[in-house]
Design goal:
Helix content: 40-55%
Number of domains: 3
Radius of gyration: 31 Å
Strand order of the largest sheet: 1-2-5-4-3-6-7
Order of helices and strands: HHEEHEEEHEHEHHEHHHHHEHHHHHH
Length: 494
């Protein structure tokens, strides 16, 4: 009986001969990965592991189930304020271990045919950030990689990933299930992709990690590879090719893991305390306020809006780029045409590397389209007024809407409607509500004269005005009737 390695080598040789035949012998040359001289005899997996370890600067670890190439990076000082980080919504408690995790795979799917051949891990020991990478020399060694990976994830630890909830961790869980093993138990999972979307989408071109590095961390990669090349480099090695192309893949993964750590440091140092938030861009504070409000922490959300309202709400300029020897920025991404779902919408699959793909989706909802607007002064004021109403601070909310209603544009008309509703239903002031409605109608008529009609808002205001007038007339009639009844009772007294 032949071994699986020999069967795979024989099948690969037959496929290459078939491709050469279909090209007619004189057609276009085969790809470099297909022109590799395949071994005629099975290669020992230990020899493959040794060759790979020498190339990437790692060591071979043998255990039950096969071999793993382990690469260890020198510790780096990356201090992290765990108390400040824990104060942000959705962040882990300060006492639990954090394990940054990133994978390199043979594809971009999470189905059974996709394998994670490289797993990068990073964790803190004091202020020192430790890193290790586990590399798979051959498919048959996967049980050993899964065993080694489980040893680096504490039971109470939190995973820190970038799109790991949708890709990295589900893929690893699938591999554990294929091996008929349970995935490692851990205390929680912090995915930084939703955090980036929520806080920084107003000033980033897309959500890719390298864009976050340049736009937020001030780093540019030089000498790195594109994510679409990674699967081909590993598959070429499995077909008998050289291991040198995988050295760049290891460096790429090493930087990805370290970028997760630096992004956590940015969140903790720039947004973890009220003092730090006073120098943050207004748009970032608006996104953070929405995150606090979603978590039910309304007072902290209001504090963010107050600081953002005082700040200058202009798009933040990216920091000065600090070159590091990684890869150049990918210039292939272009802004999506108007009318498509925006990149930060949860309905859009995350773009985290690889070849660009065309996503076909439905039109954005009214809610998501509203969030696509920049964090202007008016938008911050509107969000703040809504939050004051949620806090049941009726008088403060009425003052906030009244300030907006005194301004120009469509926002003032909407503010007049909100002010009318608040005065009628919460402050029990229908006369004040009617005045606000009249101010809104005046603004709507002014916009109509300028060629910018608002028919729906105008219809709402007119219907509201008619109802309020009927209510006031009814209240006046009721008051008069009660007064007459009171006079009658006084007249019959002895």
């Amino acid at each position: 009986m032949t071994s699986p390695v020999a069967d795979r080598a024989s099948l690969a040789r037959r496929l290459d001969r078939y491709r050469a035949t279909t090209h007619g012998g004189g057609g276009a040359p085969l790809e470099a990965s297909r022109q590799v001289e395949l071994p005629d005899a099975p290669v020992d997996r230990g020899v493959l592991a040794e060759r790979l370890a020498r190339t990437v600067g790692g060591e071979v670890v043998s255990m039950a189930g096969g071999h793993v190439v382990r690469c260890t990076t020198e510790p780096r000082e990356i201090p992290l304020d765990r108390v400040g980080l824990s104060g942000l919504p959705g962040q882990p408690p300060p006492g639990v271990p954090l394990v940054c995790l990133d994978t390199e795979t043979t594809g971009l799917a999470t189905a059974t045919g996709t394998v994670a051949f490289l797993v990068g891990l990073g964790w803190w020991e004091g202020d020192a950030f430790q890193q290790v990478q586990l590399l798979l020399p051959d498919h048959a060694d996967e049980p050993a990689l899964l065993t080694a990976l489980a040893g680096y994830i504490p039971l109470d630890g939190w995973l820190v990933t970038y799109n790991g909830r949708g890709f990295d961790w589900p893929l690893l869980v699938t591999r554990y299930r294929m091996a008929r093993r349970a995935a490692p138990i851990h205390g929680g999972h912090l995915d930084l992709l939703p955090v980036v979307r929520r806080l920084f989408r107003h000033r980033l071109e897309d959500a890719r990690l390298r864009t976050v590095e340049s736009g937020l961390l001030g780093m540019v990669r030089h000498g790195d590879i594109d994510g679409s090349e990674i699967p081909g480099r590993y598959l070429g090695f499995l077909r008998g090719g050289p291991a040198e192309p995988l050295a760049a893949v290891v460096r790429h993964n090493d930087q990805d893991v370290r970028s997760l750590a630096r992004l956590l440091v940015l969140l903790a140092s720039g947004y973890g305390t009220p003092e730090a938030r006073r120098t943050a861009p207004a748009g970032d504070l608006g996104g953070l306020a929405r995150a606090y409000a979603r978590a039910g922490r309304l007072s902290e959300a209001l504090e963010c809006y107050d600081v953002a309202f005082e700040a200058e709400p202009v798009p933040a300029q990216p920091p000065t780029l600090r070159p590091i020897m990684l890869r150049p920025l990918d210039a292939r991404h272009r802004p999506e045409p108007a009318g498509e779902v925006p990149w930060w919408s949860p309905r859009v699959p995350a773009d985290f590397g690889g070849s660009p793909r065309q996503h076909i989706g439905s039109a954005p909802s009214v809610r998501s389209a509203a969030f696509a607007t920049p964090w202007t002064t008016d938008r911050i004021a509107v969000e703040r007024a809504h939050l004051l109403r949620r806090l049941r601070r009726w008088d403060d909310a009425a003052d906030a809407w009244a300030s907006l209603a005194a301004g120009p544009g469509r926002t003032a008309i909407v503010a007049a409607i909100e002010l009318a509703k608040l005065r009628e239903h919460r402050l029990r002031d229908p006369l004040g509500a009617l005045r606000a409605t009249g101010d809104g109608l005046a603004l709507a008529e002014r916009r109509q004269h300028l060629g910018r009609p608002e028919p729906r808002l105008e219809a709402d205001l007119r219907a509201r005005a008619r109802r309020l007038r009927r209510r006031l007339v009814g209240r006046t009639a009721t008051s008069a009737r009660r007064a007459d009844q009171g006079h009658t009772r006084v007249g019959v007294l002895p």
